[in-house]
Amino acid sequence: MYFIFQLEFNSTKTYIADLIRAYAKQIGIELDVFQDSKLITISALQDDEKLEAFLNGLEGVLPASLYIGKSKHFFRDEKLFLPSLEEAKLPVNIAPCPTCQKEMFDVSSRRYYYPFTSCNYCGSQHPFVSKYPYSRANSTMKFLAPCEACVEESKSNFLRLDYPLISCIECGIAIRMLDKEVEHLALDKGDFRKLFKASGFAIAAGKTVLMKTAHGYRKFFNPNKDLDAVKKISFSATVSDSTLNKNPYAFSEASKQNVELSTLLMASAGGINTHLMLVEQEFNALLSIERPLLRVATKSDEIKALYGSSALVKYPDDGMTMLLAREVLNAGLEYIAYIECEGTEEADFLVDFDLPISSQKDTKLFVNQDDKLFVSGERIIFPTVVKNENSMVALAHDLLAVEVEGKTIIDSMEKFDSIKGKGVNILETEEFESGHANEQKVPQYKASMMSVLAEYGKVGHKAIGVHFDGNLNFLYYNGKNIINAVPPIPFESDNLWEKISTLREGSDRLVGNYQKAYPEIWERLDKLEGDMDIFEVTAITLGLANESFEGISAEALSFLGKGGLQIDTRVKDNRFDNYAFLTSIMSYQLGDVENSYMCYSIYESFGDYIGEIVPQLIDKVDTKTIVLTGETFANQSLYGRIQRTLGQYNPLMGKKFPIGKESAVHGALYL
Ligand SMILES: [Zn+2]
Ligand SMILES: [Zn+2]
Fold it and tell me: Which ligand is nearest to the CA of 166?
C-alpha cells in the first residue's frame, strides 16, 4: 500500500517540492515527489516506519507559500508514476525559510543575527547573482571563500548541499553602521545583534535609518514620531514612474501625506489584526514566504490617521528587514514605515555592506476571496523558465526571455551575456536595438493578451480580450493576430474646459458652477498638459493625495456600502468617452457625493461598461474565451463587478505573470 499526499500548488516554482525532497533525504525515508503545474504529489510506502516522523517534521520545515492551496491524502495499491516538471536551478528571492529563521535567532548558531542566512530553498539569492548559469563563481560572493564550517556543512546539511551562496558570520558579508561621526563595524555575533538593536531603538526614538537590504536601499522611520524627520524624505524615489514626480503640488501639504505614500512594515504578525482590516486570505498572503506587497484597508485609528483609508503593507521580507523588525518590536513598536530610495538618501544612520547587489522591483499582490493575482513587479515571479517553441528572444520592461543551456529563462537584461534566437520581439516602448535580422516591435496590449493565452494553452484559438491599463481597449484575437476592436477615444487633457463645455447642451453651465464651487481645482485642470490619463485627471478632480488610478483604487477600498451611483461613460456610439465620464463625476461632486462612494462607483461603472461590450463582441465573433489583462483590474469593486457580469464566461487572467505590464516579456515570445 502506498500513502499519497497531495498539495495544491499553483506554480511551476520548484522550491517547495525540492525542499520536501531534501527533507526526505534528511529523515532517510524513500519517497517520490512529483510536481505538475497544479499539484505536488508525495508518494511513500504506507508501512515505512519513518513516514510518521517525516510527516510530523514536514510541518515545521515547510514555509507558508502563496502557491499552496488545499491538501488531501489517500491510499493506493500500486506505485504511482507521474510526469514531473523540471525547472532549471534558478536563484530565488524570497524570505528565509523556517529552518533558516530559527538559525538567525539561535544564539548558539554560526548565523545568529546574520542577515544573509539562506539555503538552497529560500532567502535572497537573486540579488547576488550576476549572470547565468547560477553558481558562486557567477555571483558577487565569488571573492568570499567559505570557512571550514561552511565547506563541511555544504556536504552534510540537507538544506545546503552544494549551496552556491553558503556563508556565515565567520566567512560572509560584513555590515556596518554609520552615524554622522562614527562607523561601527559588525564583525562577530554580538556585533551583528548590537547593530540591529541600535537601529531598532534609533527608529523608536524618532530617528531615520537608511539600510541596504537585499531589495535595495530602504529608509526606515517611525511614522508616529517626529513628523519633521519624515518631511525630509524625498519621495521622488518611491514614485519614480508615476505622475507625482511632475507634480510638486501633491507634496506641498502636511508631511502626513508623505507617510501615506510610504510602505507600512508590520514588525510582528500580532499587530496585523489590530491595525488592519483584512480577510484570512490576505493575512496568509502577507505572511507567505514570498512576502508580497498588499494594499489593505486600515482599521485602527492611529493607522487611519497616518495612512487614510488603506495602506500598502509589508511583512519583513529579507534578512536585514527581518532582523530590524525584531529589534523594533523589542523597542516596543508594532510597526514602522519605509520608502525605497537611493543609497545617497539623507538619514540619521546608515547600515550598509560592500557587496554589490541587483535588486528587483517589488511585487504587488491582489487578493479577492480565493483568487490571487500578481499586479505588477519582478520579485517572486522572475527568474522563471518558460516554453519557447519558436526559439524566440523577447524583451520588455528591461526583462529578457532568452535561451540558456537549452532552457528559456526570463530575468533582468543584465544577467545575460548574449542573445540567440530565430527572431527578437521587442516591446515598442523599449529603446533597445538587437541588430537581429528578424526583429519586430510589439505593442503592450498584444503581448499581454498572448501571455495569458499561452498560459492557458489557447494560442491559435479565437478569443476576446480586454486590456485595461489606464486606457481601456477591447481586443479580438482571430487565432493569428490581435486586433484592437474598440480602441478608446483618444483623451487629451489640455483645453479640458472647452471640451467639456461643448459636450452637450447645458455643459457650459456645469463648467461655470464648478469654477465657483472649486476654484483651485478648476484652475489646475485648466493648466493640464496633454499627455495625462483619465485616472490622473480624475484623481486631481477629486483632490486625492495620490494622483493616479492607484489613488482612486485606494479610496474606493474604504467604501463599505452598496453601489448604485451611475457614472456616465459615453455620449455617442459604444465607445468610452472620457469627457462624458469627467463631466458626470463633476456633477456628482457638486451634489456633495463622498469621494469614497464616487471612487467605488467609478470602478463599478467601468465593470458595467465592460460587461455590456464584451457579450456584444462575443456574439459577433463566435468565441467564449475572454482574456482580461492590465493593472486596472486589480481593484475590488471592478473585479467584483466583472465577476458578476462576465463570470458565466469564466474570463482568463494571468496567474503566473503579473496582470500588469511585466507579462509582456512572456507574451512577446508568441508574437
Ligand atoms: Zn532556508
Ligand atoms: Zn562560514
Answer: 2
Instruction: Report the pLDDT value the prediction gives residue 68, as an integer from 0 to 100.
Output: 95
C-alpha cell at 117: 542566512
Closest listed ligand to the CA of 160:
1
Higher pLDDT, 556 or 18: 18
Is pLDDT at 234 greater than 60 in this prediction?
Answer: no
Listed in sequence order, the residues at least 6 apart from 465 whose beta carbon sits closer than 8 Å to its beta carbon are 445, 449, 473, 474, 475, 476, 477, 482, 626, 627, 628, 629
Per-residue H/E/C for 401-432: EEEECCEEEEEEHHHCCCCCCCEEEEECCCCC
**pLDDT for the residue numbered 260:** 81
Domain 459-651 annotated CATH 3.30.420.40 = yes
Asked if residues 388 and 406 have their Cβ atoms less than 8 Å apart, the reply is: no
pLDDT tens figures, 368-395: 988 999 999 999 999 999 999 999 999 9
User: Is CATH 3.90.870 correct for 175-353?
Assistant: yes
Residue 146 Cα to ligand 2 midpoint, Å, equals 5
Q: pLDDT category, 227, cuts 50, 70, 90? A: low
At 237, is the pLDDT very low, low, confident or very high (cuts 50, 70, 90)? Answer: very low
Question: Ligand 1 center to residue 159 CA distance, Å?
Answer: 7
CA of 350 to the centre of ligand 2 (A): 25
Task: Give the length of the chain.
Answer: 671
Question: How many A from CA of 168 to the centre of ligand 2?
Answer: 4
d(CA 300, CA 282): 17
Measure Cα distances from 387 to 382, 403, 404, 411, 415 in Å: 14, 10, 12, 14, 19
**Portions of the chain given CATH number 3.30.420.40:** 459-651
Average pLDDT over residues 144-161: 97
Given a cut of 80, whether residue 247 has pLDDT beyond it is: no
Which fold is adopted by the domain 2-76?
Alpha-Beta Plaits (3.30.70)
Query: Has this prediction a pTM greater than 0.85?
Result: yes
Q: Which ligand is nearest to the Cα of residue 124, counting in written order?
A: 1
- Tell which residue, 263, 22, 43, has the closest CA to residue 122: 22
Q: Please list the residue range(s) of the chain that carry CATH number 3.90.870.
A: 175-353
Beta-strand runs (E) in 512-638: 626-629
- CATH 3.30.70.100 segments of the chain: 2-76
Distance 129 CA to ligand 2 centre (A): 19
pLDDT at res. 634: 94
CA of 166 to the centre of ligand 1 (A): 11
Q: What confidence tens digit (pLDDT) does each residue in 13-25 have? A: 999 999 999 999 9
